[in-house]
Amino acid sequence: MDSQVSFCSTSTAFCFVFFSFTLLFSLFSLLVFVLRSKLWCNCETCQAYLTSSWIREFDNLCDWYTHLLKKSTTGTIHIHVIGNIITANPVNVEHVLKNRFENYPKGKPFSNLLGDLLGRGIFNVDGDSWKFQRKMASLELGGVSVRAHAFDIVKSEIQSRLLPLLSSVAGKEQVLDLQDVFRRFSFDNICKFSFGLDPGCLKLSLPASEFAEAFDLASKFSAQRGQAYSPLLWKVKRLLNLGTEKQLKEAIKVLDEFAQEMIDQRRKEGFSGRNDLLSRFMSTIHDDKYLRDIVISFLLAGRDTVASGLTSFFWLLTQHPEVESAIRDELERVVGSSDEQFASFNQMREMHYLHAALYESLRLFPPVQFDSKFAQEDDILPDGTFLRKGTRVTYHPYAMGRMEQVWGSDCLEFKPERWLKNEKYIPQDLYKFPVFQAGKRVCLGKEIAVVEMKCVVLAVIKRFKIQVPGLNQAPRFVPGLTATLRGGLPVLFQEREA
Fold it and tell me: Is 455 assigned to a binding site?
């Protein structure tokens, strides 16, 4: 009995000492962070950031950043309190993404933020691991058979689920959240493409999916880590398993169990001859955790970005019916009076106005509004900005689309014609339009994503009229890894006359 009491006392003492040490170490680390980060900075910009006083004038943080970048003579600003240099200068973007690529990796701070969710996936690593996954993904995603497979998945989802859902509410004054519809649509597609699994999120009943909900929560709470003034705040919460960190852990557990179940099932049934990414990668990778990280990364990239891009595009169409009419005219001119529900690859290549309209939408509302790297060594940007080793540097596609010196005096207008010359699409410099990144990290799935968006746009506007009820307000975004409209996009549908 005495030995049990002694053991309990020893255990209690050990726990007390451990947590006391952890607390003291965390406080000490926080003090060091404060001293190094200048959290007391009294400059106008830093005070506005710390007190969130910018909210009085701007609906979105990205709009405040845009305002500051427009006022800057170099198109670059410095938020001292978070050690972040933000730029909307294309020359700087090219320097970071191409000319000095090796000096600007994702960096350990970024990898830590998304490490629990993405692990060693391609979007969260640098160096040899990134090169290996990049080469492997390039071989897989660049193949004609893979693209044809992705096209078939998208067509099937549109024909069997998206159009029947929209038809079921058309003409009934029933408001549908188009953002939610597109998130469900893209999640079904990317799960089929990545895992060979159909979660059925876009069935007529719009069912709940434990995997989709866990994925949403994991993305949301991972993004919230980046909004903390100090990484110590979320690290202490994770250590103590509190609040959002506890919820993040639970959500990731669901993702891990699901991924492992899919891997085990594929090993049992065999993966040769299958077209999904998991099966393709399993032929060369035998580490289950690594497989999980790779496929979850593709889920993140292929789901939220496409849904965000489609949501913004249809919001813009409701504000600019002349653009919708021009797309419909082009569709009729290229496809003719054919009863075919979908345009072919070759026919879509001939639709230059559609392509221009999509890119113009992405210019104004990029799904990923900003992206950050960390300087490995001291450097000087082309505009003269000095970066000390370890400094975070962020390029801001959302702001770049609103810079007069980049896009001209009409930069705030939705104007597909700026991408056309003699009615032919003319590409722009990737470093003034880094929506799909640029340089060595340019998005490998860009063509697949753009084709998916085109298929949806053509199928929907061919058959339905869309209206946003009530007042049309400027978009307000929820903070996150991708641009998500606060409150969704409520719309009404009306079937067009045959």
Answer: no
